[in-house]
Design goal:
binds acetoacetyl-coenzyme A, three-stranded mixed sheet, globular, single chain, 14 helices, alpha+beta, 25% strand, nine-stranded mixed sheet
């Protein structure tokens, strides 16, 4: 176990030693069910190529009623917790836009389900799909002041637009969990970052609605506008150019969206740079093509796909574009660390995808329409068919009940 001595800490505090902060571990979870987009297209009387090429989605993850944003996040985090992490995590931040309570943080449930130590801070953050990026930036500040700490950042969402709506093809369900620490083993995050806030109504979900409202075309335009702005500002702040990036990962509401953004800057690079970025972009979309939009976690699923599906050289710089409707955007970057692939859970994620069950469109619609009571009545849920270790078992006296089958 690596400990900072008081002497080292003092050097960091005085700015004499560079403190490297970034992503130490990445966990991912998506529920057991999915729908094939070709079949959804047929059911919706749309040409399948519109969904698979025009939108760029092959499959869409569907959450059973026994999975909610809390359980998805807890299941994602389970794989990346060892004794050292449990001992050192003193801050849990949960980014979500499908929260289950206006008051209590979803992170507090996860903190308990994972058996983390009590002397920790736990909060939930909300700014549409940007919440987890905000959490990562706050985690950097926390670790700069407390170099021995580790921070658990959770990004978890179930994207719902409704059956037979234009947004339906961009639904999804899943979570990514990140451990942020000093001397991270996967990626050191660069200090520089560019960000933008503007009050716009491109996508939102009023508290009375369980599906999102969206102005689809406007949201696409604003995504591109925000990307252009923060990309230019990032280059101005850092002096870096497109050639400095091995890959750029995007928030992926659907995989064509990131491609549209990448295309706006490609002519800044040589042919070789363009080819590299286009190839790596496709690799970064492989997981999202099978999962769909998972809002706060989508950018980090894109990063995970790139890291797990291609061996990149240590020292490569990866750009990250985060966009949360409403809207906040940020461009930042990180440097891959030596042997970073040894710290990924590639086999676990391969098994997760291989063990999913395809749903017919009518079965997906049935599951989509299932809902928890909102009138205060209690319910017991049967979790026997849910292979996830952590499940929602019901509601009693207005309180969600969870189980960790591993305990
Ligand atoms: N073969 C190949 N391509 C085809 C095709 C065919 N047979 N038929 C149509 N297409 C193409 C279209 O040309 C179009 O491509 P371009 O965008 O490159 O022009 C693409 O398929 C989509 O077609 P439409 O624009 O007609 O699709 P639509 O009107 O049904 O809606 C959408 C698309 C606006 C993305 C809708 O799905 C939606 O509202 N989604 C939710 C909002 C969203 O994801 N916004 C993204 C930015 S906001 C954000 O990022 C935050 C977030 O997470 C929500």
């Amino acid at each position: 176990m690596k400990l900072f001595t008081y002497y080292q800490y003092e050097k960091v505090r005085k700015g004499e030693r560079e403190l490297k902060i970034g992503i130490d571990k990445i966990g991912f979870y998506t529920p057991q069910y999915y729908v094939d987009m070709n079949k959804l297209a047929v059911a919706r009387n749309v040409e399948p190529e519109k969904f698979t090429i025009g939108i760029g989605q092959d499959e869409m993850a569907v959450a059973p009623i026994t999975q909610d944003p809390v359980t998805l996040a807890a299941n994602a985090a389970l794989q990346i917790l060892d004794d050292e992490a449990r001992e050192k995590i003193d801050f849990v931040m949960f980014g979500t836009e499908s929260g289950i309570d206006h008051s209590k943080s979803a992170g507090v449930y996860v903190h308990q389900l994972l058996g983390l130590k009590p002397n920790a801070r736990t909060i939930e953050l909300k700014q549409a799909c940007y919440g987890a990026t905000a959490a990562i930036q706050l985690a950097k500040g926390h670790i700069a002041l407390n170099p021995e700490s580790k921070v658990l950042v959770l990004a978890s969402d179930i994207a719902r637009y409704g059956i037979n709506t234009p947004g339906e093809v961009t639904q999804g369900a899943g979570a990514v969990a990140l451990i942020i620490s000093a001397d991270p083993r996967i990626m050191v995050l660069d200090d520089a970052s560019a960000y933008l806030t503007k009050d716009i109504m491109d996508f939102w979900r009023p508290t009375y609605s369980d599906v999102a409202f969206v102005d689809g075309k406007y949201s696409n335009e604003q995504y591109l506008e925000f990307f252009g702005h923060v990309w230019d500002e990032y280059k101005e702040k850092t002096g870096l150019t497109i050639a400095d990036f091995e890959a750029i990962c995007y928030h992926l509401p659907y995989t064509k969206m990131g491609l549209k953004a990448l295309r706006t800057i490609l002519d800044e690079g040589s042919v070789d740079v363009q080819e590299r970025l286009k190839e790596n972009y496709q690799i970064s979309t492989l997981y999202s093509r099978k999962v769909g939009n998972i809002y706060t976690a989508s950018l980090y699923l894109s990063l995970l796909s790139l890291l797990e599906q291609k061996e990149l050289e240590a020292g490569s710089r990866i750009g990250l574009f985060s966009y949360g409707s409403g809207a906040v955007g940020e461009f930042f970057s990180g440097i891959l660390q030596p042997n970073y692939r040894d710290f990924l859970k590639i086999d676990h994620h391969t098994n997760l995808f291989n063990n999913r069950t395809e749903l017919s469109v009518s079965k997906y619609e049935e599951i989509f329409e299932e809902s928890l009571p909102t009138d205060g009545s209690s319910v017991d849920l049967d979790t026997t068919n849910d292979p996830a270790p952590i499940c929602l078992t019901g509601i009693k006296e207005h309180m969600r009940q969870y189980t960790n089958k591993n305990k």
